[in-house]
Amino acid sequence: MRLTQNLSGNVNRIRAYSTPEIIINDQSINSAVIVDAHNIQIEPGLRELSDLKAAHITYVLTLNPELVILGSGMQQIFPAAQWSNQFLSAGVGFEVMDTGAACRTFNVLIGEFRRVVAILIP
After folding, report:
1. Residue 6 in domain
2. What is the pLDDT of residues 59-112, one digit of tens each?
3. Is the residue at 10 inside a domain?
4. Contact 122, 21 (CB under 8 A)
5. How do residues 3-28 score in pLDDT, each as one tens digit?
6. Domains in the chain, number
7. To 10 degrees, the CA torsion angle through 53, 59, 60, 62?
8. Cβ–Cβ contacts within 10 Å for residue 96, how many?
9. Which of 23, 44, 68, 77 pairs as cysteine with 16 (C-beta 3.0–4.6 A)?
10. Which contiguous run of DSSP H or E holds residue 105?
11. 33-55 in b/e burial notation, b at 16+ Cβ within 10 A?
12. What is the DSSP code (8-state) at residue 112?
């Protein structure tokens, strides 16, 4: 599904997504990805929620987000509570949704100049 046609500013925008492809700016990515306004971290070892590791949380927190969005694939699937609690205890909001909704939400929040990080599993 195509999300945006034009890019404005020097921030990452998700232009389209489908299983298993996510297009950020002009870059086609065929694996999971962690993205914020200025960083794209490709995560080929992250294929499902059970692959989430403490290193992912550590990396995401170094990006200083106010909100983290987890796109869990074709369906909304929640990770173990201890995983989300680490973000909440750091004062960072945490939302889980299917990857399509996560892509759309990311673009809206980036457009509002919010400090959002998306973890997207195609």
Report:
1. no
2. 999 999 999 999 999 999 999 888 889 999 999 999 999 999 999 999 999 999
3. no
4. yes
5. 544 445 699 999 999 988 999 999 99
6. 1
7. 150
8. 19
9. 23
10. helix 99-111
11. bbbbbeeebbbeebeebeebeee
12. T
